[in-house]
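About this split. The held-out portion is used to measure sequence recovery: a designer receives only the structure tokens and must propose an amino acid at every position. Recovery is the fraction of positions where the proposal matches the reference. Here is one held-out target exactly as it appears in the evaluation file.
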């Protein structure tokens, strides 16, 4: 398959269509689930989709081990290439790498002012202007409303879309009257799109919990395959 055909057939086109064109510049989106369900895999699949389109992605990691991020990209790209029988796989991967930048911060030393300085330096001094920011590994249970407002400000000032991963509470699914689980619910109005990863018998269901200002939440009909770590179409009835 040629790269152009892959871009057209990607299941991420389904998500974009469902949420009226996608997340959009200036907005925040989040994948939320318990640890180990597939949040990072979803983020990396989204990032690779942008990269294949020739756009730039800044991946900001607050994980303890930054080395695994590069491994995620290689693994998910390999699965995408194999699943869709992509031609010239290595050449395409080499082409997209210059459009991806990984920035790592230690979670224990979380300093949003330092993060902002680094982002500004990369964009202005380094002439790397991303269309998407990926923010992975933030400890949402310990974050304040002002912390997420910081990222909203970044999204609007830099005119980028920002996708996050957020771990749910360990003990049970604590949801509010809107059906939004903690700890994401306290930031509800700052996120434009909220997607819950719900483990099923042999796949992980992607459930749309918030779609911009829409009150009619459609079914995504998408799943995460736990074996390939890819977002895929889900048949009706599954």
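Reference sequence for scoring:
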């Amino acid at each position: 398959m040629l790269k152009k055909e892959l871009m057209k057939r990607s299941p991420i086109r389904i998500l974009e269509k469902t949420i009226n064109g996608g997340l959009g510049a200036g907005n925040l989106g989040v994948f939320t689930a318990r640890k180990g369900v597939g949040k990072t895999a979803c983020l990396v699949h989204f990032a690779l989709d942008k990269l294949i389109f020739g756009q730039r992605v800044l991946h900001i990691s607050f994980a303890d081990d930054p080395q695994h991020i590069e491994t995620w990209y290689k693994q998910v790209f390999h699965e995408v290439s194999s699943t869709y029988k992509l031609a010239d796989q290595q050449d395409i991967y080499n082409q997209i790498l210059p459009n991806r930048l990984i920035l790592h911060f230690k979670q224990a030393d979380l300093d949003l002012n330092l993060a902002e300085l680094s982002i500004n330096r990369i964009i202005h001094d380094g002439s790397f202007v991303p269309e998407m920011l990926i923010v992975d590994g933030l400890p949402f249970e310990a974050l304040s409303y002002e912390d997420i407002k910081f990222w909203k400000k970044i999204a609007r000032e830099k005119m980028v879309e920002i996708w996050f991963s957020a771990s749910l509470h360990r003990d049970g699914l604590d949801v509010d009257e809107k059906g939004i689980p903690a700890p994401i619910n306290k930031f509800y109005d700052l996120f434009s799109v909220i997607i819950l990863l719900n483990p099923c018998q042999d796949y992980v269901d992607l459930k749309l919990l918030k779609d911009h200002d829409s009150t009619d939440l459609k079914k995504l009909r998408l799943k995460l395959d736990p074996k390939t770590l890819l977002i895929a179409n889900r048949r009706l009835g599954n």
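Annotator remark: Residues 164 and 208 are 15 Å apart (CA to CA).
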